[in-house]
Specification:
1 helix; flat; two-stranded antiparallel ribbon; 2 strands; alpha+beta
């Protein structure tokens, strides 16, 4: 069920087990666009 949604389960391979989300090219491109929409990162002046 999760595999159908794009989850890829990684077996123990020396680096540990895990889960990765498999994305297609258009999804990767869209994420790249969204990551750059925030503008320039500034510092917070929190007292």
């Amino acid at each position: 069920m999760l595999e159908g949604a794009g989850a890829v389960f990684i077996a123990e391979n020396g680096g540990g087990i895990g889960v990765r989300l498999k994305l297609n090219r258009s999804e990767v491109k869209r994420i790249g666009v969204l990551e750059n929409e925030g503008g320039i990162v500034g510092t917070d002046a929190v007292p």
